[in-house]
Amino acid sequence: MELGRAGPAGLLLLLPLLLAAQAAPERDPYRVLGVGRSSSQADIKKAYKRLARQWHPDKNKDPGAEDKFIQISKAYEILSNEEKRANFDRYGDAGESQGYSQHQQRQFHHFHEGFYFDESFFHFPFNSERRDTSDEKYLLHFSHYINEIVPDSFKKPYLIKITSDWCFSCIHIEPVWKEVAQELEALGVGIGVVHAGYERRLAHHLGAHSTPSILGLINGKITFFHSAVVRENLRQFVENLLPGNLVEKITDKNYIRFLSNWKKENKPHVLLFDHMPVVPLLYKLTAFAYRDYLSFGYVYVGLRGTEELSSQYNINVYTPTLMIFKEHIDKPADVAQARDMKKQLIDDFLSQNKFLMAARLTNQRLFQELCPVKKSHRQRKHCVVLLTGEGDKFADAYEAFLTFAVANTKDTLRFAHIYNDRQPEFADALLMDEEKYRGKSAVVILERRNNAGKIAYKTLEEAWQGSNEDNFILLDLLDQLRTDPGLLSSETVLADLNDELAPMFLIRWFYSTLDYILDCWDSLFHSNWREMMPLLSLLFSALFILFGTVIVQAFSDSSDTRDSPASEKKDTTAKTEKNDTSFNKESNSRVPKKGFVEVTELTDINYNSNLVRLRPGHMNVVLILSNSTKTALLQKFALEVYTFTGSSSLHFSFLSLDKHREWLEYLLEFAQDAAPIPNQYDKHFLERDYTGYVLALNGHKKYFCLFKPHRSGDEGGTLGACEDYDSSLHTEARGKSSCSPGSRSLKNKLHKLSFWMERLLEGSLQRFYIPSWPALD
């Protein structure tokens, strides 16, 4: 009665609820999998496996099995993800469009939490399940994209659309996309569609952060489309993805040069004659797909300057014509004509003419394609290979072999030739370095037995001269081979062929660098801020560190050169004492591994292992001494560095000044600092006294830190002798008279070396870099 009183208006309001109630079971993942809302992940997985086996399209021939299997997969995807499952339990939707339009979905579902309104009632094609199903056959998944689409992009470009649910712009571009996708797919362009809601991982991998997005994929490289979505722009975008040198424009002036390059490039050459002024996109796509096998040229027959070319080959200017040229450029090896050139026609025509009549084996891939491995008796293919050389001396033998190949072309025979000097391992394995073949050509009939290089073969007993007798002998062997496969009595294993046409390393490196620069340039001007944030963050961080280091170093240098004010002396002394206390604590905590200091002499025998080839992060602390000061300085050195022997990255050595003075003086030339080496001379030899100097040598990074002997009497204290000391440590030394080397005791030369070692471990010492370590003579 109440329903009757409501009238037509009430029916209209209740009709969406009735339709929603009918459609809800199809959209409820719990009902699809037949599990309860409190089911565990193990129960959900078990139910999914059972239903997936039951409704898999390969096993279930029911017409609705595929749709049912898709529903099961989507339901499991929602319930196996805790976030999606929570969204469905809360809002009645899994939030598949999160990041794109989830806010709009939640507003719609929050209208009343107790009801669900199916948008199909209002004819709004927001949900991908209700949309045009033309995109379904193009849907991509992450594993499918990585394992199949990316490798296939080296044969044809792909145009990929990123879409999602509740995307108004996606609906707007669908008619244009559908038209262009059908048109380009017929030309040989791969089409893909990525649903950002279901394939977030793939969308993120592609760098798509908004929908709709359109991108191109070629040679594994992604390029985004940034223009208006119209047919002309999309076609031009795909054409721009292709390399610019795929097809060469051919006229009367350059056709002979183009066709004569077959020997250099080791490829047949293809000419397309057409009355279109620009190269058709279909022909460019074909040239990209077959670029490893064929070279392509285009002749615009309506252009002045192509009359001789059209006349020589008797071209019908009103019908597109394809011509294949191989070893002979005076006449084509094959011709195809059609008013409407279709992709299938061109593919069939080119796939039958991918190789020259007697191609030169220049790499392993070509050898494997020309001479495939025997899979069965019916698929037997024999290769007849001419092993010859370069130059006019071998020209007659090659021409005779080519003539024989043209006259005896069969599906079970392939002819090829190889240069002995470019593939010496191949030639030696077949000819056994026999004297009768030296400096001559030879013919071998072979059959590949497996991919590991094993072959069965037979070599003609005499060298190949190209005479009629040689032709009869080879023809007789091939006839016998059809009935007696055992004629190939010899077996061997061939190594892989050298790649003769591979570009040099510098050229590959140059092109890789160029591609990287172009990618960065494109990203800089076309990527959004979200994509650019990691790069900008890295750039500004590097600049901040660089300028911060420069500023800190500048202030540090200026403070070192200034004398400390008298008012700060007490504070500085207090800090020094504090540092001494903390250092003693750290030294006590650094427990030496041994009860003694291991100090080795640095000689030319252990020079490489102890310095030049020292492991990264390790340093060798070297004491400079003479024969007369050796005992006293080593004892003092051991006392000063004993607390640092617990560090595994430090090694201790001493260097004899009497033996290696030149080596030391060479190193000290690089120590150009504000505190120059003092002019102190030995009484007897009138040479500078370097005893007591200590060098911390980093062999991996090629730098050293320098400790100069302590001078108790000079103004400025140790600052003058070793720039690595803080001036505040030596204020008490001021005012004292300078001491000569004779009055300076040996035990004071290494005074405060332990403080210097502490700063060495802190990394606060000045470093002197050298280009390379000199030889220790």
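Next protein, fold it too.
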Amino acid sequence: MELLRSNLSRVQIPEPTHRIYKHECCLSFDTPRSEGGLFVDMNSFLAFGKDYVAWNHEKTGNPVYLHIKETPKSVPEDRPLKKPTLLAIGVDGGFDNNETEYEESYSIVILPDFVSLPFPSVELPEKVRIAVDTVLSAVGAERREQVAAWTAEEKKASEHALTLQQIKSGVVIPPSGWKCAKCDKKENLWLNLTDGMILCGRKNWDGTGGNNHAVEHYKETSYPLAVKLGTITADLEAADVYSYPEDDSVLDPLLAQHLAHFGIDFSSMQKTEMTTAERELDQNTNFDWNRIQESGKELVPVFGPGYTGLVNLGNSCYLAATMQILFSTHSFISRYFSHQSLKLAFEMAPADPTLDLNMQLTKLGHGLLSGKYSIPVTEKDAATAEARQEGIPPRMFKSVVAAGHGEFSSMRQQDALDFFLHLLDKVERGNNTKPDLDPSRSFKFGVEEKILCSSGKVSYNKRDDCILSLNIPLQEATNKDELEAFNNQKAGKGLEENNMSTDDIVRPRVPLEACLATFASPEQIHDYYSTALKGKTTAIKTTGLTSFPDYLVLHMRKFVMDAGWVPKKLDVYIDVPDVIDISHMRSKGLQPGEELLPDAVPEEVMETAQPVANEEIVAQLVSMGFNQLHCQKAAINTSNVGVEEATNWLFSHMDDPDIDAPISHQASDVDQSSVDTLISFGFAEEVARKALKASGGDIEKATDWIFNNPNASVSDMDVSSSSSAQTPAQTGLPDGGGRYKLFGIVSHMGTSTHCGHYVAHILKEGRWVIFNDSKVGISTDPPKDMGYLYFFQRLEN
């Protein structure tokens, strides 16, 4: 007790602004449930496992810690699982994960000798008692930053409900047998509460749903409210009421009165349709497992170093699949595991290691690769229980890597490709002072685009990339006869694929070689300004690689537009061999006899770089039901390339906080940080500003603009005069032969990259292993033909 009193000056009483960690070690994945428990520094309020707390004492001199230990409680056998009724975790009506309950014990520990004092105890100094009570009653920083609940927002009463005008048309709605007034749809029907028209709902982006007749009727009449037929029961609050002006599901406090106007007795009606919220819940509780997850197959669990699962934090499977593959590469293993210890990373970290990307990547690397946490869970009935592991929760890593990013810091599902690119960018920035150690460079390669003008002269433009994004040429399918027979059979029987067994459906099979050939094939550029002809012409662009990376990532573009401009996911198999050779894709640079285009920059290119939307693109998007302003932004941000690109942009940016902000045409609105980023790519400031203005401030689109208008930056970009010339950015990129071996696959289930589920398959020690969040097992049938991202490692000669 005297020792404690002598160190009272190192004890702090937490303020409301303090971040208190008490659920997980900052340097490892130890928790209060670990064998040694958890030690909370009573000065910094950081938490450390038993093996790491001494490092913190050495670094800070802080001697007083709260030790928290959790042990399992006895629980009744066979506790039943309840079906969820709410899209949430850990709340009444939400998902019941049936976890074991624990009881906590506490003590005060003084380092370096681990002198222990019991808590609670009236003999402890008052300052210590208050400090500990405050820590225990506070919401832990881990929970505050990573809430494992995504409860849908509560519906609000519509502002149009109380003033709704209903037309006295004499329309009486029958209790059943409804049909759209403008087509043959008998499901997903909406009753307009003003005039009683029954019309079908919106067409979903996977092609299902209605034909947009209800929303088109609103645009023609401005009648604001509609209720979904089949959701009306005695519980009126559960009915699905939609407000078109508010563009949201709402409550109608006068719904009973509004229904009675059309002769509807809600008390006798039965529920036959899912509400919007129920459909959202259903999508989160029922994934299309099938082959990607190897459902129905007896997977043998595997444990040990490199076989540690990652706990799903709530729609975080995109992160888990990506990180499992990255930490199967030599570059990431070397940088954050074999050549960097946890202690070294901690010594280099700032005062709060939870905010340091290097520390958290090292923590994640050691967690995944050490084998410390890849052990079978002890089951009560070991004879019948399936062996499994708990996995490790990447909360702190997700928090630091997503900091400042509106999407990745949310609990929404994300695109695994977007996350991969975001992470590599963060890793590169974090290693900018020591590029030789940067593991992101192992994925980088140089791309060279050759543009052949109709004058016969050429230009060469270079850039760096870390993925090859490949279109899927369905016309190159190798099973065309089977496809034709299947389609004829389906048409003859009047069948829809969603009513057929998965095994009966014939899907196109496209060789990966055809996708690679499409990438390298010549492409026409219309309205290309030729400095040789001093006018616009049609040019031919061919693309090749100036270097081959250590790890080659192929992205399959499975999300496209159908004939009706409805986004859909291609239901296609890609035949991917175990070994590929891309040697033929190496760019040859300027060839003998080729003449470079003149350097003159056309004035109209430089002066007309204002963000103006193509009206034809905007009109087509508006006809699909999108907001006019949003459509203009989509056209501008995709450089008016086409409806498909603009629609993809819309779906990716619907939740942007500034989506409803007016379009700015002021040069001063170009973000300086975006200008600096383009300058770092090797472009001149003047060209960077004009490109950003032309593309609405989007860096990626600005880069595309520069490459599509190469003469605008000819003096600042590298226009090759020899086959060996390289831009500064390309200097030092890894290079080698063009033969690669497949070692990793990220597969996706769902109608969009922003919903569904991601799973990784990785070739380890000569066998394929499935990483499905916390589940890790030997794969018996890896879905090599169903990947979204394919990871290859270069084979040395």
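About the second fold: The CA atoms of residues 70 and 448 lie 58 Å apart.
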